User: Fold this.
Amino acid sequence: MRKILVTGALGQIGSELVMLLREKYGNENVVATNRSKKEGHDELYNSGPFELLDIRDKEKTVELVEKYEINTIINLAAILSAVGEARPQDCWDINMNGLYNMLEIAREKEIMLFTPSSIAAFGPSTPKEKTPQDTIQRPSTMYGVTKVAGEILCDYYYQRFGTDTRGVRFPGLISYETLPGGGTTDYAVHIYYEAIKNKKYTSFIAPGTKMDMMYMPDALEAIVDLMEADGDKLVHRNAFNITAMSFTPEEIAASIKKFIPEFEIDYEVDPVRQAIADSWPDSLDDTCAREEWGFNPKYDLDKMTEDMLNKLREKLK
Ligand code: NAD
Ligand code: AKB
Assistant:
């Protein structure tokens, strides 16, 4: 029986993942943790265990692992790309020292550890089109530096200690439950909220900027599928390229226009986030994830747009 501890559980991914895991593995078997409590998560707080945990606190993490007899950790606590450029020292501290604690605990207690990487693990010298699974990784952001270092560290723990570490390189994730926490791809979430509220959106990302994206249901399924995959079949354990679609701001706007014909987009480009976006791939090659553990996303751009707009209409009324 899996007993799972999720860190950073009140974020964009965690807030939905915890509910899915509780449905799948039982409410009491999924312990949600976050550095601080936040409003708007009553269902998560009331449906199973919730504990305050800063992932830099190893002692408290061990205490919780022992208290709940944890055998799987999903480490989602992190600082993302845009906040990481504003606070690079915090980004290193949380993303690296936090991950190191999780790895050490996973090694000591023989726990499976899932840690997401990102398209941010690539940089300007990486091939932009059909970015291969194994390629040049010289990111130009602190977030990206921590993601590459994290991937390599997780590989090291598997190779050196046999710790069952797994992970994917997520593209930008789009969802309607919890707003994203300070990334570069956040524009592709905000645009749907503004489409419902005001029928217009001012994009901080310039036209023509392509980035990989994925709808949250596909991302959650990918986490569970990789966690449950046969470890013997995994060659690229810690950093599978995965993607579902790749689009520019004008392409997502055109998709929204199919459902809201009056919708308009204009641009006020933020140079910091634009530079980050320009350094990332245009489209990933996810063949290894498909071949090694059957990754197969269900949502393309229009199917996601239709669902996002329907869900947000309900949520915002
Ligand atoms: P998020 O910013 O929405 O949530 C992160 C959560 O971690 C927040 O609730 C925050 O309060 C918490 N947190 C921050 N510092 C902490 C600490 N020291 N200890 C404990 N909790 C702390 O992030 P997310 O979008 O849910 O991302 C989760 C993981 O997935 C991250 O590793 C991120 O790099 C990766 N990822 C996300 C995306 C995306 O588009 N959302 C894309 C690629 C990779
Ligand atoms: C960000 O924009 O920082 C994240 C990511 C792609 O890692 N959404």
Notes: The mean pLDDT is 98.
